[in-house]
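Possible regression after last week's pipeline update?

I re-ran a chain I had predicted before the update to compare outputs. Posting the input and the new output here so someone can diff against the archived version. Not blocking, just want to make sure nothing changed silently.
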Amino acid sequence: AWYERHGYERTGETKPFPTGDPRFGLPRQTLEFVVLKKHIPSLAE
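New output (post-update):
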C-alpha cells in the first residue's frame, strides 16, 4: 500500500524469492516478489 500511495503500480508479474541459502533457513511457505513500476516523467513532458 505504501508504494502504491507513492506512485508505484503493480505490473501483475511476480518473481520467485531465492531460496536454498542455508544461512537464511527454509521458508515455511512459498514466497514471491511482486514487481512494481513507476512512471518518471522526462524533462520534455
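Follow-up from reviewer: compared with the archived run. The radius of gyration is 16 Å. Marking as no regression found.
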